[in-house]
Design goal:
The complex is a heterodimer of chains A (about 120) and B (about 650). Chain A is built from 4 helices and 5 strands. With about 120 residues, chain A is an alpha+beta fold. Chain B has helices spanning about 10, 40-45, 90-100, 120-125, 130-135, 145-150, 160-165, 180-190, 210-225, 235-240, 245-265, 270-290, 295-310, 315-330, 330-345, 350-360, 365-370, 375-385, 395-405, 420-440, 465-500, 515-525, 535-540, 550-560, 565-575, 580-590, 595-605, 610-635; strands at about 25-30, 50-55, 60-65, 75-80, 110-120, 140-145, 170, 455. In chain B, β3 (about 60-65) and β4 (about 75-80) form a beta hairpin. The chains are: A alpha+beta (about 120), B alpha/beta (about 650).
């Protein structure tokens, strides 16, 4: 149970950005890392979902919630879709979708226990 | 993807399911997220006493069964669609919500709920407990996959979880049957009115807020001393092979080729056995019945008409067995993953792959399975192309023609022969036609933005004999019911049409019978395809269902020649068709939409006659053109 939620910080659990448009990527600061930037086996913590509400809800139901650790695993031949380990299960996403899941900046995670 | 539908009756007739009869039975609903083992538990509780139907007015399927109960209570179980929440956004969630709140027409509000969750992933699965428990119905929280949880070192305190949630909790393994008696006890208890509810220890969260619900589930898990199990090692090991960049796709191809070779050669002994039984039965009937019209009707109409179709049962069951193994083992989700990029090139997504693969069994459940596709346009495109996939009703036609015209030679060593190779080629042809049609549709009238693909990869599991067995029993029932209704009816009508009008009080020569006249009337249109008037009769009768053509030809040849059998059917076909005509016939069947059940289900799913009409016209055109080109090109000697 403990492995699924990285931080006990409930406020950040509630934070999520849900945009109406797919083009939400444009307003993202250029430095922000997304799920699609992670290499296989590298872990990251989700900060927000930059996607239309219905898509974001489905992803959250599958475990892609702010504060959760995600680890990219194997992909289909050709690099996508890729399987992501999140919240105790494995879910496959295309790169296009993964690039709208914004990760927390590394400084925010520093010092907190991370169990992949 | 579920293939346990009744292609014939549930779709065409779809009578409103009335659970509430005069003596109202105790209704128990089973609900759980996808991959929680809901169907396994349902099968475990009901065995063979189940049937599939649709909720009235919507496309969502419902499985209803009677519980195997030792007591006198009459208990009805409803298997609801797999959902993550009760927020009514998709049709599945709407139906689940409506049934549980008693708002579903013709379905009584459940008296009790079985909430089934995967114990190896309790944190995420407990999220569904919040909306279910807030309904205040007597609920048993079932933690499934207890065997996996234990073997991977996970733990949970069920007594503590029960007091946290205010509902009884049972840790079971639906696949192995461990702990299922606790579920029966609960059902019996609620039927006897002995279960009481207590308030949950931790207040339920605001249901619309997913992060808050997840947080609540997390706290409940901590309260119940839940220890998440170690990651599924075997799944990761298998994935490193099945999703290997090179080995993965190769294994996929080997699996597919192996399946086809087995369908073709593995089923042969069984089919031969069945064949000789049916012949002996026919002969016996012929010897005990007095000579005359009735004997002729039974032997020629029923024996050779229906009998020549029933012979294909082992092959169809073998196909369903393979699809069942692929699905139950978890490999199908990996196949969808591998296929996604290819599907994307044709404007579809990996999720369309699962309905399309199940269309290899039957287009009817495949079309119903498209409801998991969120995008309306993607869904319509998938519905329109699904009947091009090679369904099992084509198998009897293909097998008969291939066995008669294709000489068996090794193609890929022992793995694949020319006959199975031809069959595989026809399957590939259907798939190719389907995805090219999809591309045309998606780049024109059904153009839309790419929809996100998200697919949960379930852990690999060993398929249970029980679940595979139930699928086969179910499929046999559907097949035999079709043989006993549609095919029997067409065979009998055909027999009558072959024996009228009487000439001097005697049945006419087959050429001068009503059936012969119809055949001759269509002959000019099909002659360029290499088909004669007898094949013409077969094509018309197969408008009801594809496999009917085999029965029709069986009846025609047996009327013509009293001692025909299927070995004879093959030989007769060789004298009726040229090799070019035979290949043209295969191509015709690859493309044509000869299936009333499919037309009916497309009409219902798309809400009108427009799309099925377009689809029927398109597929018939494709079939005619394909057969015409094949016959003309092969006859001119360009290809031999």
């Amino acid at each position: 149970m403990t492995s699924s939620v990285a931080s006990a910080d409930t406020d950040s659990m509630m934070q999520m950005s849900v945009n109406r448009e797919f083009g939400g990527a444009k307003i993202r600061p250029p430095s922000a890392r997304t799920l699609s930037d992670l290499k296989e086996g590298e872990s990251g913590i989700i900060d927000r979902l930059d996607l239309p509400e219905d898509v974001a809800r489905r992803l959250m139901e599958l475990g892609f919630l702010p504060g959760h650790i995600v680890v990219p695993a194997r992909s289909a031949p050709g690099g996508e879709p890729r399987v992501y380990r999140v919240d105790g299960s494995e879910v496959a996403l295309r790169r296009e979708t993964a690039s709208h899941l914004i990760l927390r900046a590394p400084s925010k995670i520093a010092g907190k226990p991370i169990k992949p | 993807m579920s293939d346990c539908h009744d292609c014939g009756s549930c779709v065409v007739a779809a009578p409103p399911t009335k659970l509430a009869k005069a003596t109202r039975s105790h209704v128990v609903a089973i609900i759980g997220p996808p991959n929680s083992g809901k169907s396994t538990l349902f099968n475990r509780l009901t065995g063979l006493r189940q049937k599939v139907a649709n909720f009235p007015g919507v496309t969502v399927e419902q499985r209803v069964g009677r519980a195997r109960s030792s007591s006198s209570h009459d208990i009805t179980l409803i298997d609801l669609p797999g959902v993550y929440s009760l927020t009514p956004r998709s049709e599945d969630e709407q139906v689940t919500h409506d049934v549980l709140t008693g708002e579903m027409k013709d379905t009584p509000k459940p008296d009790a709920v079985l909430l089934i969750l995967d114990s190896t992933n309790l944190g995420r699965h407990l999220v569904l407990a919040a909306p279910i428990l807030s309904l205040k119905l007597p609920t048993l929280v079932i933690l499934n996959m207890a065997d996996d949880l234990a073997s991977r070192g996970g733990q949970v305190d069920t007594a503590e979880l029960a007091s946290q949630l205010g509902s009884p909790v049972a840790l079971i393994s639906a696949a192995k049957g461990d702990g299922v008696e606790k579920v029966f006890q609960f059902i019996e208890g609620t039927a006897g009115g002995t279960t009481s509810l207590s308030a949950p220890k931790i207040q339920l969260p605001v249901l619309q807020d997913i992060p808050r619900c997840r947080q609540w589930a997390h706290q409940v898990g901590i309260g119940a001393a839940y220890q998440a199990p170690a990651p599924p090692l075997w799944t990761r090991r298998l994935d490193s092979v099945f999703l290997h960049p090179i080995a993965g796709p190769l294994i996929f191809l080997v699996v597919v080729a192996g399946v086809f070779q087995t369908i073709f050669s593995g089923a042969k002994p069984l089919m031969d056995g069945l064949q000789s039984w049916i012949e002996q039965g026919s002969q016996w009937l012929g010897s005990v019945l007095p000579a005359g019209i009735f004997r002729s009707l039974v032997v020629e109409g029923v024996g050779h008409g229906v009998g020549s179709v029933i012979v294909f049962l082992p092959q169809i069951l073998l196909l369903f067995l393979f699809i069942g193994i692929l699905e139950d083992s978890g490999y199908l989700a990996r196949a969808a993953l591998i296929a996604d990029r290819t599907m994307a090139k044709f404007g579809l997504q990996g999720k369309s792959f699962i309905p399309l693969l199940s269309a290899y069994a039957c287009a009817v459940p495949a079309i119903m399975a498209t409801r998991t596709i969120e995008s309306k346009r993607d869904r319509l495109a998938t519905i329109l192309i699904a009947p091009l996939m090679t369904c099992s009703a084509r198998l009897p036609v293909y097998t008969l023609v291939i066995a008669a015209f294709i000489k068996e030679r090794p193609l890929l060593g022992p793995l694949l022969g020319t006959q199975a190779g031809t069959l595989l080629g026809l399957y590939a042809l259907g798939f190719l036609a389907a995805i090219l049609t999809a591309r045309a549709l998606k780049s024109s009238i059904l153009k839309s933005e790419r929809t996100p693909f998200m697919l949960e990869m379930p852990p690999y599991r060993l398929p249970t004999l029980r679940s595979l067995g139930l699928r086969l029993v179910d499929r046999s029932k559907v097949f035999l019911r079709r043989a006993g209704t549609v095919i029997l009816a067409v065979s009998l009508v055909l027999w009558v049409l072959l024996h009228l009008p009487l000439q001097n009080g005697k049945p006419p020569e087959i050429e001068h019978s009503f059936a012969g006249m119809i055949g001759h009337a269509v002959e000019p249109a099909i002659k360029p395809l290499g088909f004669n008037w007898k094949i013409g009769i077969g094509l018309i009768s197969s408008l009801a269902a594809r496999e009917v053509i085999v029965g029709t030809l069986g009846t025609i040849y047996s009327v013509e020649d009293a001692d025909a059998n299927s070995e004879g059917l093959r030989q007769r076909l060789q004298s009726e068709l040229t090799p070019a005509g035979a290949v043209a016939l295969l191509i015709f069947f690859a493309f044509a939409m000869q299936c009333m059940s499919t037309i009916a289900v497309v009409r219902r799913e798309t809400g009108g006659w427009k799309w099925p009409a377009i689809q029927f016209a398109y597929m018939t055109f494709l079939a005619y053109l394909g057969a015409l080109i094949t016959n003309q090109v092969m006859r001119s000697g360009l290809i031999t």
